[in-house]
Amino acid sequence: MKIVQRSLRAVRLDRKVFDEIYFEHDATADAALVVGGVGIVMYLVLLAVGGNVSLFGLVRFLLSEMFGWLILGFATTLVARWIFKAEMRTDRIMASQGHTWPTQLSALIPVFGWLVALVWGIAALTVATQETADVDIQTALFSVVGGQVLVILFRFLLGGIF
Fold it and tell me: Diameter of the chain by CA atoms?
């Protein structure tokens, strides 16, 4: 239940929760559970609206979510370190960012859900990065956006494997 409460606080942009996550040694594992849980919910909703049931589809969808989260954590840290010379720990960034993953569920809203998920997701990821790395909001925002660009490039280069 602690994981759900933390995630709800993270998606509401409660800055104090990211301090708690930073000092919690199990927070990265908890974040992996959040990301996996969001992936399962999204897959089940997509099935309910007309998708085909397949164990391979579920595994591929979950792997896509998990790899996206891992790459985003590393990419955000990479951008922050190389461009902005910020000091941050990748595992802590991943823990904080993973707790914000439920913002992606808003993509399931018809018509403009993807836009809500994009804006809310970037806002939540930015606050998570800012609080976890103790950097200014601009550095956090550009690190997150740069990380997202690297994720998109990585996915493109892999040809949609995930």
Answer: 47
Residue 162 lies in a domain: no
The tens digit of pLDDT for each residue in 34-89 reads 999 999 999 999 888 887 778 888 888 899 899 999 999 999 999 999 999 988 89
Q: What is the distance between the alpha carbons of residues 12 and 59, in angstroms, rounded to a whole number?
A: 29
In which domain, by residue range, is 49 found?
A: 2-157
pLDDT for 146 beyond 60:
yes
Does 79 reside within a domain?
yes
Burial (0-12, 13-18, 19+ Cβ within 10 Å), 50: exposed
CA separation for the pair 157, 93 (Å, rounded): 24
87-93-96-97 Cα dihedral, nearest 10 degrees: 130
- 162 class by beta-carbon count within 10 Å (0-12 exposed, 13-18 middle, 19+ buried): middle
